[in-house]
Amino acid sequence: MLEIKNLHATIGGKEILKGIDLVVRPGEIHALMGQNGAGKSTLSNVLVGNPSYTVTEGSIRFNGKDLLAMSPDERAHEGLFLSFQQPVEIPGVSMVNFMRAALNAKRKYLGLEPLDAGSFLKLMREKRKIVELDSKLTSRSVNEGFSGGEKKRNEIFQMAMLEPTLSILDETDSGLDVDALRIVAEGFNKLRTPETSAIVITHYQRLLDYLKPDIVHVLIDGRIVRTGGPGLAAEIERRGFDWVREES
Amino acid sequence: MKETAQYIDFFRSERQRIDSGSLPVLNARRDEAAAAFERLGFPSQKVERYKYTDVAAAFAPNYGIQLQNAPSAPGAPSDLAAKAGVPTSSPSAASTVDEAPADLVSRLYGTLADVNADAITALNTMLVQDLLLVHVPAGTTREHPVQITYQLHSSAPLMQNRRLLIVAEPGARVQVILNEKADAQQDFLVTQVTEVFVGAGAQVEVYDIESTHDRFHRFHQFFAEVAQDGRLTHTAFTLAGGLSRNQTDVRLSGQGASANLLGCAITDGCQHVDNNTLIDHLAPGCRSHELYKYVVDQQSTGAFAGRVLVREQAQQTDSEERNANLVCTDQARMWTQPMLEIYADDVKCSHGSTVGQLNAEALFYMRQRGISEPDARMLLKQAFAAEVINNIPLKALQQRLHILVEKRFRSCEDCRLCKK
Fold this sequence. Notes:
Helix content of chain A is 40%, strand content 29%. By secondary structure, chain A is an alpha/beta fold. Chain A has a single domain (2-88, 149-247), classed as P-loop containing nucleotide triphosphate hydrolases (Rossmann fold, 3-Layer(aba) Sandwich). A 6-stranded mixed β-sheet of chain A has the order 6-9-10-3-11-12, sandwiched between helices. In chain A, a hairpin with a 2-residue loop joins β11 and β12. In chain A, α4 (117-130) packs across α6 and α6 runs parallel beside α7 (178-190). The longest helix of chain A has 15 residues, at 95-109. Chain A is globular. By secondary structure, chain B is α/β, with parallel strands linked by helices. Chain B has one domain. Chain B is built from 10 helices and 17 strands. In chain B, the strands form 2 sheets. In chain B, strands 1, 2, 4, 6, 8, 10, 12, 14 and 16 form a 9-stranded parallel β-sheet that branches. Chain B has an 8-stranded parallel β-sheet with strand order 3-5-7-9-11-13-15-17, with helices on one face. The A-B interface holds A 48-51, 71-73, 75-77, 81-82, 84, 87-93, 97-98, 101-103, 105-106, 109, 141, 158, 162 and B 359, 361-362, 364-373, 375, 379-380, 382-384, 386-387.
């Protein structure tokens, strides 16, 4: 599904990713762990085509296509979704208009007719329940005045609406209390299918307890230095990152 | 200056025709106006209030000047009773003839619009053909808005000079919507002078909506006086046009009077929109609120200059002025000049302006969700303009404007003028 080869990327002339190799197959959940500045968020931004980042070397193929040749919106239509670490507030753009524009753009890309107003609102209602998102929130402007937890739930709600095949959760657990974390994680699990995959970026074990990754990677200084099973995450929780750095 | 002379010469040689198609009350003021206009001449850009617009260039071409009253359909809500020799129409009862005092027009006409202070006002007063009066008797509420639509069509270049007089007697309430339209791709030049008298405790809302084209030149001089506890709302909405200059002067002359000035301009191509406002706090305890927003695209230019004057006697003034602008390209230009002049010592006043681009983070967030870049830009621009619309008290007009703005941005993105 996703095949990253020798990926190098910079922001503002500074090299952050220094040769990433990663393969994600359908149905797999990968955890990406590492300290601040290791390059986790850079990798997620590069994957979704954030124009602030420059790829200097390497390739990314997504479902056999050259991902780096696609615009951010094409990547989304192809099934890529990023749950942002800090979702942006967009005053004046209602959640309804925003979601309708996004969903209908995807349907157009897939050669489908736009959804009529009634079916669209019905879909919004159904998907909202997955993350217990209040209807008051979906009638507001995008993320405006949402609490930290509500913003993260809103990310998973959007994921439910758009049904991506590869989701990247960038520190979706940060700023969440125990209950909100459970709601977000359970919402995510409800959306899983044998065909959908995810890359979960986190510092902590607690989100992984819910999501149960198949493969865990440790990112240090722009490279994946260690890859293992779920046990690796537990070991990092117990021992920190320093031993990985020393052993690599 | 030859541009000024062109109009003076026309006035002198055509005086008889000008007078014959018009009302005595209008004819009586022409000589004074002509003298003032000749003395003032078209303002150069060294004149403070006109520094952002080249007035002489706009008036230089030889337009045909309309010397007949505008055709009006009898019985229509915007009927000009002027044709029948009664220069009044009573919006409280559109079907009945005039209830306004006979001397109302001669008493009020030209008292706010001072020909000696402004050349365009003088020119308009010199050449004006049509006067429309909206009169609301004391204590009367006009249930539905009065809609006045100016729709110009002509097979040759055309200049039109017109007047609007709105009189709300004490306690009266009225909403007036002005639609400026043109259905021919022709060079048009319009001067309009509007005088609004808001009586004690009266409420007047004026919505001035321009939706014309790039060959349309429009100068609107708007003057209002608000008496004790009166309330004025004025909206200058430029959806499309060529050159638009709106000068909005409000005198808050009675204690507790208030003015709410809203403006929005959406510009592209080679459009130019200049809003120049003056709110004069003459009495204590008055409030003024001002919000103007511009979306300036392609090679277009926008200007906003808003002066709030708080006189010595205007204690407990509460005034807020804000101008926010989105400049969408490297070639687009925006000038902004909020001005606050305070001579009283117990007031609460604020003013500010911002000029910026679309939020790159918001754009990217939307694109990650699959929204194309043009659509994401359009949604953000619409959201920006929506703040002005949402402040409009007339709900039905809010909905209409949301739709018109969306349409406007869609065609703007589609036509790709900037790439030709």
